[in-house]
Structures are given as structure tokens and as C-alpha cells.
């Protein structure tokens, strides 16, 4: 097999990237109506699912698919709005945790239905049941089987 991609391989990759960006923009656009970005929503959702509602900034960055510096800015913004608090890690003063506040939990509860409706509208309703299963298996393979906070692995 040559190192060059075939026309079909280029088309497949382009379609995959286009689909991911289209879904992200659609859901993100809907969240703008709630004055949030998709990354902010994912940050608060992952915090709500974590033990004691707290995670290290690096774990949050991985879970929300952003860089650590971007996550620091997201946490700073949410902290300024009273939705999260930042705590220093007593075991490693260089690291910090983001902690979801009660106001953050309340906002997330209110945003859950619009978010889920958006995911359905821009993604789930477009898949047939067989396609959804196949896509889930492919996504699992592409991520190396990683799921959940802190488990995403980088593949070579």
C-alpha cells in the first residue's frame, strides 16, 4: 500500500472532519442562546459527574477536548460568574482543581434539556440505528477505547 491517500480516503476523512465540525457548530450555536460555549457546557457537565464535583484542570481539558491553557481561561470565566470555584491541590501546589458551585449545578440543570434537544437535532436524529451502532464502534476504536474523564489517550 502506498503512503498516498486514495481519492476515496481523502473524501472519507474530509467527510468525517466536516461532520464533526458541523455537529459541534450546531450544538455550540444553540448553546450561545444560553450564553455558553460547548466547551463551557462540557466543563460543567464533567464537573457535575465527578466525585465531589471537582476535577484537576488538566483532566477537565482532556474531557472537554481543549488545551490546558484554554481550560484555565474557561475556568477563570466560569469562576468570575460564580459557576465554579478554583482550589489549590494541597498535594501539588502547582496544580489546581475546578469545583462546581451550587449556582453551576443549577445552571446545568436548566440547560440540560436544551442541550440534549440540540444534540438530538444536530446529531442523533440523523443516524439510523445500524449507523449509530457502527459509528459508536468506530469512535471507540478511534479513541483507543477511552471513555470518560481523564481516560482519553493520544494515539500515535
TrEMBL record:
Pfam families: MarR. It comes from the Bacteria. InterPro entries: HTH_MarR-typ, MarR/SlyA-like, WH-like_DNA-bd_sf, WH_DNA-bd_sf. SMART domains: HTH_MARR. Residues 1-144 form the HTH marR-type domain. This is MarR family transcriptional regulator. It comes from Paractinoplanes pyxinae.
